[in-house]
Amino acid sequence: MMSSVLLILTVCLSGYAAGLEALSQSVITAFLSGHNRMRSALNLPDLVWNSTLVSVAKSHVVDCHYIKIEDGNFDISPRKERDNVDIANDAMTMWSWEVNNLDPKWACIYNWSCKRYSQVVWRKTKSVGCAIVHCSRYDVNLLKCEYYPPGNVVGEIPY
Ligand SMILES: *[C@@H]1O[C@H](CO)[C@@H](O)[C@H](O)[C@H]1NC(C)=O
Ligand SMILES: *[C@@H]1O[C@H](CO)[C@@H](O)[C@H](O)[C@H]1NC(C)=O
Q1: What's the order of all strands across the beta sheet hosting 48-49?
Q2: Is 40 helix (H, G, I), strand (E, B) or coil?
Q3: Which residues approach ligand 2 with their CB closer than 6 A?
Q4: Nearest ligand to the CA atom of 150
Q5: Phi and psi torsions of 111, nearest 5°
Q6: pLDDT, tens digit, for every residue of 32-62?
Q7: Which protein residue has the closest C-alpha to ligand 2 atom 5?
Q8: Higher pLDDT residue, 17 or 154?
Q9: Residues near ligand 1 with C-beta < 6 Å?
Q10: Is the distance from CB of 147 to CB of 128 less than 8 angstroms?
Q11: Where would I find the SCP domain in this sequence (predicted)?
Q12: Spatial CA neighbour of 102 closest among 93, 92, 111, 113
């Protein structure tokens, strides 16, 4: 019952945004290998893909409202031309560059300068799920990833 209500809601909302199709295996691989490259450089265990988190991420991008994505690992890119593998790979590259902003106390988490990287390399996080939507309204792609257990816990450091 609950899941059919959610399904109907998802189908209706997706009218606002083109291309909230399920991610192909190659996009999932791009996300996972991007995350796990950053983690294995620190000897952190790999993340696995989590379809429950994909649904949460989808719910945050489906109506193309930026405001709902900015509290986590997100990316915004111009809509022209790009396929989801490129969008995922570019986001992984940008997030990895945040390693250059690290400071010894991880204060950078709280002014955004390393917040996406710090979540990727959060030791206690075990799984990730992401969604990409192509928003004709603003001519952008929105991308968001969700994590379990979530990182960037106030008062803790990533690893
Ligand atoms: C963010 O915080 C770090 C650590 O305190 C600092 O080095 C950096 O300059 C800050 N960046 C911005 C954009 O405020
Ligand atoms: C996937 O995410 C859900 C919801 O956040 C969580 O309950 C579940 O334990 C996660 N599964 C894995 C393998 O991390």
Answers
A1: 48-49, 127-135, 140-148, 73-78
A2: helix
A3: 48, 50, 52-53, 126-127, 148
A4: 2
A5: -115, 20
A6: 999 999 999 999 999 999 999 999 999 988 8
A7: 148
A8: 154
A9: 103, 107-108, 111, 113
A10: yes
A11: 26-155
A12: 113
Distance 22 CA to ligand 1 centre (A): 37
- Spatial CA neighbour of 49 closest among 128, 111, 115: 128
The pLDDT, as a whole number, for residue 15 is 41
Buried b (16+ CB within 10 A) or exposed e, 123-133: eebebbbbbbb
Say what the pTM is.
Answer: 0.86
End-to-end CA distance of the chain: 41
Query: Among candidates 12, 10, 37, 40, which has minimal Cα distance to 131?
Result: 10
Ligand nearest to the CA of 48: 2
Q: Give the pair of three-digit tokens for residue 45.
A: 């265990």
**What is the rounded distance in angstroms from the CA atom of residue 47 to the CA atom of residue 120?**
9
- Counting ligands in written order, the one closest to the CA of 103 is 1
> Which residue's alpha carbon is at the smallest distance from atom 14 of ligand 2?
127
Place of tokens 């192509």: 134
What is the residue whose two structure tokens read 């106030």? 154
Mutation choice for ligand 2 from 32, 35, 50, CB with most ligand atoms inside 8 A: 50
| Cis check: omega of the bond before 149, within 30 degrees of 0 | yes
* Cα 47 to middle of ligand 1, angstroms: 28
